[in-house]
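Slide 14.
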Amino acid sequence: MKIIANIPGFSVIARGLLKVRKYNHLIDDARAAGELEKEQQYIKEAVYDFSSYVSGTLDLSFNVIHPENLPQSGPAVYIANHQSYADILAFMCCVRNHQLAYIAKDTLEKIPVFGKWVKRIRGIFIHRGDARASLATINEGADYLKQGFSLVIFPEGTRSHGGQMAAFKPGSFKLATKARVPIVPISLNRGYHIFEDQGVLTKHHSMEFLVHPPIETAGMDRHQLAELPQQVEDIVRQGLEELQRQETNHE
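Slide 15: predicted structure.
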């Protein structure tokens, strides 16, 4: 990583986190009191303020395609391809109807201030290569969903750093199927231009956020549940390929 070149961009993120400190005690107090609706509302407001500041300062725009497919209320599991760090910011900016938490790799938990904030907004850190810890993560996520919280999962397991998309890991879907909540497939494109292209957080970029129709899991039988991971992967992949074809045609 180009540390010096990234100081201006990361300073924007740091200032964004400082701006939402006022929500910390509100979120913590609501959680301690078991007031889940209040907690969700405060998280939504904090995420909105943070993402609006960062995207506005860096002049980043997000083109939401088929916003009518976004659920009006939760809980739901959003499943998307993962090109870049900007994908998380895209969700923060594009999904306004309810709170979102994220399944993130455990290394992000160690980032000062940011790691604590992700945890405060109900992010869940997964420890790769540890089967017992992964199972605990699935159970924790399923409990969140049953309490009315919504989650974002990137089943590739890591960023692609470009336009290609890796196969989805089927274990990621156990969260949604265990809690029997809708799955919302999302195809993301162009986010890697914001950071991964040069290894520097840059300004003046746009990305596409294609929302596919939700898939209800509540009434699925065993055979349908077994086919679900491939079904969602195909939807997301086809959406990405269409976005890339449109991008090529406009060049």
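Speaker note: Strands lie at 60-65, 77-80, 100-105, 124-126, 150-153, 183-189, 205-211.
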